[in-house]
Amino acid sequence: xxxxxxxxxxxxxxxxxxxxxxxxxxxxxxxxxxxxxxxxxxxxxxxxxxxxxxxxxxxxxxxxxxxxxxxxxxxxxxxxxxxxxxxxxxxxxxxxxxxxxxxxxxxxxxxxxxxxxxxxxxxxxxxxxxxxxxxxxxxxxxxxxxxxxxxxxxxxxx
Length: 158
Fold this sequence. Notes:
Layout: H1 4-28, E1 58-67, E2 75-78, E3 81-88, E4 90-95, E5 98-103, E6 107-110, E7 117-120, E8 126-135, E9 141-145, E10 152-157
Antiparallel strand pairs: 1-8, 1-10, 2-9, 3-6, 3-8, 4-5, 4-7
C-alpha cells in the first residue's frame, strides 16, 4: 500500500501544475471554429512525466517561451526539476556533449543541477512550456555562460 503522505504530495503537485498551466496553455491555443469550444481553443500538445524526488514544499513556476529561429538559452542549471513540453516547432536540448531534438508534442525533463542549453534548430518559430518544481529557497535558473541571442519569455505564472 503506498504511503498516504506521498500519495497526497503527488496529488497536490499534479493539481498545482494543472492550475498553473491552465492560463498559459490557453494562451497558446489557436482558434479553431470547428472545435465547438466557445473560446475556440484546442489542445496543442499533451505529455506526461514522472516527478523525481518531489519536495515536501515546492514553488511551481510555469514559463511559456518563444524561440525565434537560431535562438539559444544561455548554458544554465536549475534549482529543481524542470518539466518541458515543446508546443511548436523544434527545440534541441544540449547537454553532456549531446544534442537531443524535440518536436511539437514531445518533451523531457531537466535534472536539478544539470548544465544544459536549449535552442531552436528548426527553420521557423518554436515554443516551449516549462514547469519548475523548486524546493524552498532554490534558485530557478543559474546562468553558467551567456548566449547572445536568447529566447523570449512570453508568460510566467507562480
